[in-house]
Design goal:
The complex is a heterodimer of chains A (110) and B (649).
Chain A lengths: L2 H13 L24 H13 L10 H4 L2 H11 L2 H7 L22
Helix pairs in contact in A: 1-4
Chain B lengths: L1 E8 L7 H9 L8 E7 L2 E7 L12 E2 L5 E9 L2 H10 L9 H12 L9 E9 L4 E6 L8 E5 L2 E5 L2 H5 L10 H10 L13 E2 L4 E6 L2 E6 L14 H21 L7 E4 L4 H12 L6 E7 L7 H11 L2 E7 L1 H15 L8 H13 L4 E3 L4 H5 L3 H13 L19 H5 L2 H7 L15 H8 L7 H7 L6 H5 L10 H18 L1 H9 L4 E3 L5 H9 L2 H4 E2 L2 E2 L1 H7 L5 H5 L16 H10 L2 H7 L4 H13 L5 H22 L1 H4 L6
Parallel strand pairs in B: 13-14, 13-16, 14-15, 16-17
Antiparallel strand pairs in B: 1-3, 1-9, 2-3, 4-5, 5-6, 6-7, 7-11, 8-9, 8-10, 11-12, 18-19
Helix pairs in contact in B: 2-3, 5-15, 6-20, 6-22, 9-10, 9-24, 9-27, 10-19, 12-18, 18-19
The chains are: A mainly alpha (110), B alpha+beta (649).
Chain lengths: 110, 649
């Protein structure tokens, strides 16, 4: 499973209990769609820190980084230690010298 | 305090003593001291008595001098002494010293308007055999419960739904609209209940039943007609004096009893003040009772100890663990008769058991002060959101949101951007009447994603809170948001949850009667006229009440940060005492059989709890709500017969 799909799976299973709202797209805002409630952001942060082995700084806890599947994937990819990214296995997340590339079917913004 | 039940066959078919006995037997916990029946052609009234006033002469059902009126009554009329004097002066003759007989004579005198003169907490039915009419009424704030149904030509009523269900002609089915309401407002909105065709008489309403049909009418409404917001210091002093005098009077008349009266002591301002006032007017050493928790974030025992020392009461407490909450929860739900989203009723169930085992039947408590005098954080939240809304681009104003809910650690830890999103000020124009409650209701309504597709389809689309909207008084739109929030809390959540699931039902499960000085209608009406600034001065909640309480309660209790009563939530079901029944009730097979919840969504929720990643309010409310609903289905739909009291019990 690629990074974006894994993040989407987490959000779907843990914040939406397997019932994604109709037409829930990768660019949809979690806040505007009512997916993130008063405390779910802490749950999301706990998942990111545990699964991807980095600590979020307070200044990073903002919707620019966390408010859609695509934003999350971009943020996580930027924060992943290259060593851990390699451990995740080939095809999980592609980090190159240029713009970030994602291994899912849809790239950012699609 | 007691249990009442009855039946009125409009076609005059005979009411059998067996069917009436079957109904009242289900309410034995409300009235263990004696049972009484009255039967006439087509009519039966039943009563289970908890003797508190006129121990020798207060048996019920009771009749007037010529037996043309019969009453079965649950509650207390606290001003019965004064009313009795007035009625005696008008020539009425009494054969008992009870408050019950006062209602009968007042009905003779004033008819259905008699309730206007009562200061108390009541649910009663009067059978008027000259007019062949049943008159039923419920107190202003909804302290005492009353439910009814109609099956063909039979009208049935009872203090609790289980009494009605004991009648073989009544079918037991879940009403998904009641479920929808609990999973939005935390309570049902009367007349809806959790059960199809079972209705709740709303608080402050009376009804008549006769051959012409059923008519339900309001007899009181809480109106906010405020005096000027500009309050000079001398005027503020007068308000404080007047409030204190009212509270003293409200407490004094609530000490009228032929059995000893105790007091609940939570360690907060409200119950410490009612205890202080009760103590001042009790000759005997006052006995107090409280709940302490093993979990420190819920425990208030240090403040309780301060109050006990300061007021010199004889004190007893129960120490409540998560395991105990899980253990008693099925019995708790048997008594609430509706789902709950919090476990908070469970410790109060254990507390009333302690009270009863200590030989007490009556306790004075502090309920109502938060609603009436502006104590809840939701009022603070409303003020801050309106303040922010007046300058939506301000960066400083929304930072005040950090002052809200200081006791909810996860909420405190969230980033400002998310806090702002949750306490949003962007409320649609048509939802403006509910500005104060939209964040809470919208958060709670998200739990409906756990409903099965069939239940969601039956409920239908979001109706914009139309049922609540239909119950708002005409003047509601003229009030400011603070008063509107107070109205919503007092009208719906207070009777629908605080006074029932946490109040009457938990106390009466062990035959204990609660009495609430803050809910004396004189106090409520006085508070509704107060300027908002005296209820919450800037963000200082219950400002005027604190002024009244100064010197009467320990300074530590007066100055402490408000902590609402809470208990360990869903983690209680992961303890040994609950694990087995939880797994059975939430198994995919059982969930599919019962058809209310989506078993896949519930499995994901359970999985989060097992992994320890369920930290949110929504997850906690979800699991408590799902388990309590499944317990209701188990006890009231699937296995009701096994909970019916055996004959002769």
């Amino acid at each position: 499973m690629v990074l974006k799909d894994e993040l989407r799976q987490f959000v779907t299973d843990n914040l939406m209990f397997g019932k994604p709202c109709d037409g829930f797209a990768d660019d949809d805002s979690f806040i505007e769609r009512g997916i993130i409630d008063s405390t779910a952001v802490m749950e999301l942060v706990a998942f990111l820190e545990q699964r991807y082995r980095f600590k979020l700084q307070d200044r990073e806890l903002n919707p620019d980084n966390l408010d859609s599947v695509n934003k999350l994937a971009r943020f996580v990819a930027s924060r992943l230690e290259p060593k851990f990214a390699a451990e995740l296995g080939p095809g999980r997340v592609l980090l190159g010298p240029g713009p970030l590339q994602f291994a899912g079917k849809n790239g950012p913004g699609t | 305090m007691c249990g009442i039940a009855g039946m009125f066959n409009l076609d005059r078919a005979p009411v059998t003593p067996e069917s009436l006995r079957g109904m009242i037997r289900m309410l034995a916990h409300r009235g263990p001291d004696s049972t009484g029946l009255h039967l006439e052609i087509g009519v039966g009234l039943a009563h289970a008595r908890l003797s508190i006033i006129d121990l020798a002469g207060g048996q019920q059902p009771m009749c007037n001098e010529d037996s043309s009126l019969w009453i079965t009554f649950n509650g207390e009329i606290f001003n019965y002494v004064e009313l009795r004097e007035e009625l005696l002066a008008k020539g009425h003759r009494f054969s008992t010293r009870s408050d019950t007989e006062v209602i009968l004579h007042l009905y003779e005198e004033k008819g259905e308007d008699c309730v206007q003169y009562l200061n108390g907490q009541w649910a009663f039915a009067i059978w008027d055999n000259q007019r062949r009419r049943l008159f039923l009424s419920r107190d202003r704030l909804g302290v005492r419960p009353l439910f009814y149904t109609q099956v063909n030509k039979a009208f049935l009523f009872g203090s609790e739904i289980k009494a009605i269900f004991s009648h073989p002609g009544v079918t037991r089915e879940i009403d998904v609209h009641g479920l929808d309401e609990v999973f939005t407002y935390w309570c049902t909105i009367p007349p809806t209940t959790l059960f199809r065709n079972i209705h709740e008489l709303p608080p402050a309403h009376s009804m008549t039943v006769d051959a012409g049909g059923i008519v339900v009418r309001p007899h009181w409404e809480n109106q906010f007609e405020r005096e000027s917001e500009v309050v000079a210091p001398s005027r503020e002093r007068r308000y404080a004096d007047e409030l204190l005098q009212l509270l003293i009077s409200a407490t004094q008349i609530r000490l009228r009893s032929d059995v000893p009266v105790g007091a609940y002591l939570s360690g907060g301002l409200d119950s410490t003040l009612t205890t202080a006032l009760a103590k001042k007017h009790t000759n005997a050493r006052l006995k107090t009772f409280s709940v302490a928790f093993d979990a420190p974030e819920f425990d208030e025992s240090s403040f309780q100890a301060d109050a006990v020392r300061f007021l010199d009461t004889e004190h007893q407490e129960i120490r409540c663990s998560k395991n105990q909450i899980g253990e008693v929860f099925p019995d708790v739900i048997w008594h609430t008769e509706k789902p709950v989203l919090r476990t908070a009723p469970a410790p109060l169930y254990l507390l009333s058991r302690l009270v009863r085992e200590s030989g007490f039947k009556v306790v004075v408590t502090g309920e109502g002060a938060d609603e009436v005098l502006g104590g809840y954080d939701i009022f603070k939240e409303t003020k801050i959101r309106r303040f922010w809304e007046s300058q939506p681009d301000s960066r400083m104003r929304p930072t005040l949101l950090r002052r809200l809910y200081p006791y909810l650690q996860n909420l405190q830890n969230q980033p400002d951007a998310y806090r702002k999103a949750f306490f949003s000020i962007n409320v649609d124009h048509n939802l403006q009447p509910f500005f104060s409650h939209i964040p809470r209701w919208q958060l709670t309504a998200k739990l409906k994603l756990f409903f099965s597709d069939a239940v969601r389809a039956e409920i239908g689309a979001d109706d914009g809170y139309s049922k609540v909207r239909a119950r708002l008084p005409k003047s509601y739109s003229d009030w400011d948001s603070f008063c509107q929030a107070q109205y919503l809390e007092t009208k719906f959540l207070l009777p629908g949850y605080i006074l029932s699931s946490q109040g009457d039902r938990m106390a009466m499960a062990h035959s204990v009667e609660g009495r609430f000085p803050f809910l004396d209608h004189r106090v409520v009406e006085f508070a509704s006229r107060l300027p908002v600034s005296l209820k919450m001065k800037v963000l200082n909640e219950k400002y005027l009440l604190k002024r009244c309480a100064a010197g009467l309660i320990p300074p530590s209790v007066l100055q402490r940060h408000k902590q609402p009563y809470r208990a360990p939530e869903a983690c209680s079901f992961l303890q040994p005492a609950a694990r087995e029944y939880m797994e059975e009730l939430l198994s995919p097979e059982q969930l599919q059989r019962d058809g209310i919840f989506d078993h896949r969504a519930v499995a994901l929720l359970q999985d989060k709890f097992r992994k320890g990643t369920a930290i949110g309010i929504k997850d906690n409310m979800g699991l408590v709500g799902i388990i309590s609903t499944q317990l209701l289905v188990h006890q009231f739909i699937n296995h009701f017969e096994s909970r019916m009291a055996p004959h002769g019990a």
